[in-house]
């Protein structure tokens, strides 16, 4: 429905009703659709927050976190309840939920700056997808995220990290402006 533009967004209330469906895939799709419906979907932020407060399916939680971030962009700034929920999801046992929560923080861009410390803790997560999402979130913070270039460089040079996390760190450094570029010689030596 969101792809139909204004005509599809007119069904936001009906889509919000599907958040209570007994089938997790339907709830997941409903959450994702609401997040993509701009202001019309954002009007149902409270319903999505309520659903996610009792949700147990990790796919719905992951989809809901990203949708809340999209809703927050439409409403700006994010409500305290949205930030609280996303921060709570960072502690999930499911790596997909944690990665989506990190991506949701990243989608907030500079508004995620007060929570940069939580994103940095994600560099120590056992899941590479969470680490990679954290790097992307740091980049999305703009100039404020550039101060964490050294932390990302440490991931790139840490031989105990999985190759995919190290490669992502190497890809991220050039996106961190002059602070990332400061590691050019070390990167050249590593790749040498």
List the helices and strands and how they pair.
Blueprint: H1 6-9, H2 12-17, H3 24-35, H4 38-42, H5 45-54, H6 58-75, H7 80-89, H8 95-107, H9 116-121, H10 128-140, H11 149-157, H12 163-172, H13 177-181, H14 184-191
Helix pairs in contact: 3-6, 5-6, 6-7, 6-8, 7-8, 8-10, 10-12, 11-12
Structural write-up:
By secondary structure, this protein is mainly alpha-helical. 67% of the residues lie in helices and 0% in strands. The chain has 14 helices and no strands. Helix 6 packs parallel to helix 8. 43% of the residues are buried. The model has no long low-confidence stretch (mean pLDDT 92).
Task: Give the gist of this structure.
The chain has helices spanning 6-9, 12-17, 24-35, 38-42, 45-54, 58-75, 80-89, 95-107, 116-121, 128-140, 149-157, 163-172, 177-181, 184-191. The protein is mostly helical and 192 residues long. Helix 6 runs antiparallel to helix 7 and helix 10 (128-140) runs parallel beside helix 12 (163-172).
List keywords for this structure.
67% helix; 192 residues; 14 helices; single chain; mainly alpha; elongated
């Amino acid at each position: 429905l969101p792809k139909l533009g204004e005509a599809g967004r007119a069904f936001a209330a009906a889509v919000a009703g599907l958040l209570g469906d007994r089938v997790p895939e339907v709830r997941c799709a409903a959450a994702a659709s609401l997040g993509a419906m701009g202001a019309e979907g954002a009007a149902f932020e409270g319903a999505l927050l309520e659903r996610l407060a009792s949700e147990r399916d990790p796919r719905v939680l992951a989809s809901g976190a990203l949708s809340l971030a999209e809703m927050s962009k439409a409403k700006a700034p994010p409500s305290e309840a949205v930030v609280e929920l996303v921060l709570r999801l960072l502690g999930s046992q499911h790596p997909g939920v944690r990665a989506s929560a990190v991506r949701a923080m990243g989608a907030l861009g500079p508004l995620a700056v007060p929570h940069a410390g939580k994103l940095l803790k994600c560099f120590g997560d056992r899941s590479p997808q969470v680490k990679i999402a954290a790097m992307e979130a740091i980049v999305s913070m703009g100039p404020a995220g550039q101060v964490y270039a050294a932390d990302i460089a440490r991931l790139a040079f840490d031989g105990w990290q999985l190759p995919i996390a190290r490669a992502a760190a190497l890809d991220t450094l050039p996106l961190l402006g002059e602070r990332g570029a400061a590691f050019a010689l070390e990167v050249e030596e590593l790749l040498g």
